[in-house]
Amino acid sequence: DTAVSQTPKYLVTQMGNDKSIKCEQNLGHDTMYWYKQDSKKFLKIMFSYNNKELIINETVPNRFSPKSPDKAHLNLHINSLELGDSAVYFCASSQVGQRPYGYTFGSGTRLTVV
Amino acid sequence: AQSVTQLGSHVSVSEGALVLLRCNYSSSVPPYLFWYVQYPNQGLQLLLKYTSAATLVKGINGFEAEFKKSETSFHLTKPSAHMSDAAEYFCAVSGAGNEKLTFGTGTRLTIIP
């Protein structure tokens, strides 16, 4: 059983298109995250949701819109894709408030905008 | 606010040699510190974590790290490198509530046969 699963694993699309990445966790965690890893491997948090409520919203263009229908799912929708959006996007989950055991990450979605 | 600095974006060691990857942290509150490993085209896997219990933390695959408050460091070591250790390693820090994990810039470890 995959703890944090993301789909799709690879996504190639043209500039200007709209795309979505889905994430699901079966760990019973109450918090989910989206991270972006750029071409230099730098990981930066984008969003965090706790029990479907947005709690972290870093400086991210408003073309990026996260949606959490329930605490086990966090999707990322991106409008009007740009070349600079090409990156690997990681979903993660954790249980906030408990002794921090670190996040559990999904395997990533490699987005290529052409 | 918390941050970590990883010294050395690339480290090469011979197979069987000591691995030392450096991480220094900055935190206004007692930090929780983590090391993650990322193998090519894969996600991040937790190697070990420091959560204010023992200062010497043992992780998976023979890795360990020591929390040194006086040096604000949390360096990762392994006595004898294996070819399978070749990967990207990330140091990360969070506050007590675990709300946000902030990563260092990563260190690519290459193992020389």
Briefly, what is this?
Chain A is an all-beta fold. Chain A contains no helices and 11 strands. Chain B is mainly beta.
* Mean pLDDT figure of chain B: 92
Helix/strand/pairing class of chain A, anyone? Answer: mainly beta
Rg measurement of chain B, Å: 13 Å
By secondary-structure content and strand pairing, the structural class of chain B works out as: mainly beta
Low-pLDDT runs of chain A: none
Q: How many strands in all of chain B?
A: 11
Distance between the termini of chain B: 41 Å
% residues in beta strands of chain A: over 45%
What keywords describe this structure?
heterodimer, A: 114 residues, mainly beta, seven-stranded mixed sheet, four-stranded antiparallel sheet, 0% helix, B: 113 residues
Topology of helices and strands:
The complex is a heterodimer of chains A (114) and B (113).
Chain A: E1 4-7, E2 10-13, E3 19-25, E4 31-37, E5 43-50, E6 53-57, E7 64-70, E8 73-78, E9 87-94, E10 104-105, E11 109-113
Parallel strand pairs in A: 2-11
Antiparallel strand pairs in A: 1-3, 3-8, 4-5, 4-9, 5-6, 7-8, 9-10, 9-11
Chain B: E1 3-7, E2 10-14, E3 19-26, E4 32-38, E5 44-50, E6 56-58, E7 64-68, E8 73-78, E9 87-94, E10 102-103, E11 107-112
Parallel strand pairs in B: 2-11
Antiparallel strand pairs in B: 1-3, 3-8, 4-5, 4-9, 6-7, 7-8, 9-10, 9-11
